[in-house]
Structures are given as C-alpha cells and as structure tokens.
C-alpha cells in the first residue's frame, strides 16, 4: 500500500534529500539546522521551549533532553506506522503515500531549514504534492477535546507543518492526530491544511522570516536571543 521512497524522496529543485544510516545519526543531523519541531521555539511561539533554549541546544551549550524512554513518546513512535498504514488504506483512491525512514529534507535556498516528514503524498487526481504528519496526543481534561474541534489544537503543530511547506514547496498537509484520554477512549482526527487556504501563505511567510532571523541573528552570530514570554 505504501511506496517506500519512490518519487518524492529525492533531490529536487526545492530541497535536498539527506539520508542517515540510523536513528542516532538522524538525531545528530537535526542539530545542524531548524527542523519542524524547532520552528515554533525559533519564533517564540512554543509553550515549553524558548528561543534561548533552542539557541543553547543548536550552539552546543546545552544538550537536547532525551525523552525517547517516556511512555507517551514510545507510544507515539510505535503508533506512527500503524496510523500511516491506516491513512493509506482509507485514502487509497485519493493519495499515493510514500515513506522513507531516517531522512531529512533540506531546503536548497536556505540550507538551515530542515524537515523530517512522517510521509509524503501525491494527490492522484491533480498530481499535487503534500506532507503527511502524524501525532498522538494525550488529553488530560475534558475541555482539551474542544481544543481540537474544527482546527489543529496545538499552535506548535500548526507552525511545524507550515515550516514543512516552506522547506518543501509542497501544496498541502494532511495531519493525523490520535487523541486519547485513556487507552479505552480514543479518537483519530485528520486535519487538511492547504497553502491556498485564506491566510496560510501570509502565515508561512511570517514563519519563514522568523526562522531566518533566528538563524542569522543568533545562531550565526552566536549571540544569545532575548527571552520572550509565550503568549
């Protein structure tokens, strides 16, 4: 059902494919630029990590915390291939789904801009290209379910996937989110984000400029950024 690294996992005019031999090397490669999970911190829109925190990690002053053994992280890692296969089956008439392990896409014009997709998509009817992003999220309170109604409920995730569109030049994102309060109660929701949607291009430009400024003004100069409180 899923094609493994066929048409989109290759060098293009917009991005370069970086392949790593294993997950450890892939994690090291993420330190060389600003990836999707870094983008919200770079523009000071992350609830858990400041631009200063990100700067300290990217410049080698601090080590990235290893959270791979946390139960919620292990669960998300284990579920990723299940949710990808499920999406491919449900949308077999709409999309070709491609995946390659331990790879990162690097923007050609701005090599510090990186993205590691959970899959790449080709819309069969139009030939448009898209990103597949997969998340698992544990809802800790009843009101938390409402945060995801009709939209992506986490600002950090929204910034992450728009950064992915900036890196790849692709047309859309399909984000699969498995929400759960207990193992007995789960929901799987899919969110479609299209660069043609109102306001998306403007937001992408805002993110692109913010990430670029962070890299040029703080990483390249080795100057510590100010701490801006997340609003």
Descriptors:
231 residues, alpha+beta, Lambda Exonuclease, Chain A, 3-stranded antiparallel sheet
According to CATH, what is the class? Alpha Beta
Q: pLDDT under 50 segments (min length 5)? A: none
At CATH's second level, what is the architecture? Alpha-Beta Complex
SS content category: alpha+beta
Number of domains: 1
| Tally of strands | 8
Question: With helices defined by DSSP (H or I, 4 residues minimum), what is the helix count?
Answer: 6
Share of residues in helices: 25-40%
Provide structural commentary:
By secondary structure, the chain is an alpha+beta fold. Strands 2-5-6-7-8 form a five-stranded mixed sheet. Strands 1-3-4 form a three-stranded antiparallel sheet, covered by helices on one side. It has helices at residues 23-29, 36-42, 51-58, 71-90, 155-168, 200-219; strands at 15-19, 95-98, 103-107, 114-115, 120-123, 129-138, 172-182, 185-194. The longest helix is centred in the middle third of the chain and has 20 residues, at 71-90. Strand 5 (120-123) and strand 6 form a beta hairpin. The radius of gyration is 17 Å and the shape is globular. The protein has one domain: Lambda Exonuclease, Chain A (Alpha-Beta Complex). Helix content is 33%, strand content 22%. It is built from six helices and eight strands.
């Amino acid at each position: 059902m899923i094609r493994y690294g066929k048409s989109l996992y290759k060098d293009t005019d917009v991005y370069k494919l970086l392949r790593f031999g294993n997950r450890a090397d892939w994690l090291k490669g993420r330190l060389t630029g600003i990836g999707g999970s870094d983008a919200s911190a770079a523009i000071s829109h992350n609830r858990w990590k400041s631009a200063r925190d990100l700067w300290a990690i990217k410049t080698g002053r601090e080590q990235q915390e290893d959270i791979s053994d946390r139960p919620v992280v292990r669960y998300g890692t284990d579920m990723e291939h299940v949710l990808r296969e499920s999406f491919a089956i449900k949308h077999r008439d709409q999309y070709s789904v491609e995946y390659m392990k331990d790879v990162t896409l690097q923007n050609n014009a701005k090599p510090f801009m990186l993205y590691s997709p959970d899959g790449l998509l080709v819309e069969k009817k139009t030939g448009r290209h898209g990103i597949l992003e997969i998340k698992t999220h544990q809802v800790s309170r009843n009101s938390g379910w409402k945060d995801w109604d009709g939209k992506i409920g986490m600002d950090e995730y929204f910034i992450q996937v728009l950064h992915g569109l900036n890196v790849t030049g692709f047309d859309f994102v399909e984000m699969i989110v498995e929400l759960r309060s207990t193992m007995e109660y789960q929901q799987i929701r899919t969110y479609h984000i299209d660069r043609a949607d109102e306001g998306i291009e403007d937001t992408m430009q805002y993110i692109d400029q913010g990430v670029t400024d962070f890299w040029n003004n703080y990483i390249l100069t080795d100057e510590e950024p100010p701490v801006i409180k997340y609003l």
